[in-house]
Amino acid sequence: MSRIDIPVNQIREIPALFGEKDVLKVIQLLPGVQAGGEGQSGLYVRGGGPDQNLMLLDEAIVYNATHLFGFFSVFNGDALKSVELVKGGFPARYGGRLSSVIDLSMKEGNNQKYTGEVGIGLLSSRFTFEGPIKKGKSSFMISGRRTYIDLLIQPFVYAASGNNLGYYFYDFNAKANYTLSEKDRLYLSGYFGKDNFYTIIREDQARLETDFGWGNRTVTARWNHVFSPKLFSNASIIYSHYNLNIGLESYDGFEDTFLLNYQSVIDDIGFKYDFDWRPHPSHQVRYGIQSTRHQFKPAALVIKAGDLGLQNKINTINTYESGIYVEDLWKLGSFQLNPGFRLSHYAVDGANYVNPEPRLSVSHNFSSDFAIKASYARMYQYIHLLSNSGISLPTDLWIPATSGLLPMRSEQTAIGLAKDFDKGFSLTWEAYYKDMKNVVQYREGASFLLEDDIFSSNAVGNGRNWEKQITRGDAWSYGMELFLQKKSGPFTGWIGYTLSWTQMKFPELNQGRPFYARYDRRHDISIVGTYKIKKHINFALTWVYGTGNAITIAQGYIPGNNHQMSAFPIVWNPALQSYNNFIDFGNRNDFRMEAYHRMDLGLQFHKVKENGIRTLEVSVYNAYNQANPFFYYGSNEYNNRGEVYSRLQKVTLFPVLPSISWSFKFK
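Now predict its structure.
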């Protein structure tokens, strides 16, 4: 129920921004999943925020899965073996998030021969190399990717101004496995990635340096053991690290005159032991235990101006999250039952949360090609993401549930129909309702830098000022999804449609009245198609349409000496202004951006060489040059009577963007 496996080969065929193949961008094309904005990789699944998606790379949590301020994901498609999306009916083995699970596995490496692939695009270059360590017994895979924007533009910037400016990101994936015996196998995998934006501005003897970076590191060690043909296990030790760093430093030629450093860090170390028991071909039982120590440093800010130094160092917060689960899969004739139960435990500051999480999925086959399905799941989430940008950015602040900040909870119920047709077609329909409690947002006017608290008399050394910046409320989402897919033949692809509503209610926001979430989107359509024109030529097309996001903008202007509001566009006479004038913003998220739509095209030419396959790809992003809004701002214009008109202007990011890439896969 609500589960989709995404073939990695299909991801490589779909056209993308600057030709960069992106797993998350492909997932955004599925029903029930939305993008945060133009070009963004953030995922909003069935009304949930980007923090409510559990992203696992070889069992390790990836906290920030985006590069280039959200425009690309950290998952290099060349290194992936499988991608699975679960957006409802969650198996009991998954916990800790409310909205979805994205489970990615890296390639294990070819244990018979050495193979590899290199690729060059407009934005980055990449390589993958795999082969046997000991033929037939062990193997490895390494894969890397790096942008070269900084290498291309830095010489020109320095020649023109004497300053340095650059940005780059890189990914490195590695995995190895070793067969100890017929019953035992070891795996070791890791991911290391970073983004860095930096400037060095020089003027006479003075210098100003800025550094803005964030990155992830994960390591997973896994032991697979077969007890018998009916019972096997996986034991894993997992490490995950996320770090955000913002630095600014100035020199006057003799000493530091100003220094600012801001950090946010998460360190995880965890253990899990899973069992899979199959007493009968139609009966499968999975059970296990998981435990993770999370170490949070939500914000550490140091400011130095001359001899004045202020330090707001957030105390390290250690939390412990554990779960024990069992799930049972029975096939009873035309029925399939999958009951499950998870008991989660979370400890912080001496407080303990123990929460039951029942799960149930059931399906009935009316015939071999037609089935009805239903599911229920309760989920708890013990980590929150604070964002006041409306889009997923690295400055969004991860914070843990505490003794004063309750964990989030969701309950989701879904029902669906599935039908297979001739010639590889399949159709699914699902309807869902999801209720979410203890969702958090910033209070009005608060920000991730917490600068107001920094300079207050009692701020220095206080470790929990961020708790005063947030408010807690509820959210709910409901809708239906259609998914028509063709899986075989020269033409493959899908059409997805989502009709949904997502609302929120916070006692301290919007005067306590319900409001639509920014990512509420009434209609969402995606069309994806790939066609094999000839044996070595593939054509791909995607088209997307979505109702505009809900945002808050000025609705009118109220003069101080006149209680009648001027409707938008805002018009006023400067001569009538007083200190009591103000702009009325109306209700929260009461304005809709323009509808979003875009078409992407791609053409791949494959040529078989003696030692491999060469692929040349030409693609076009936003083929008909649609000016989709990224954000809006107000601009003032004067008429001949001296009145000021404030009009709404939109900013667009990406016009039609052609790209070309080349790759070679060695045999």
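Helices lie at 8-13, 23-27, 149-161, 451-454.
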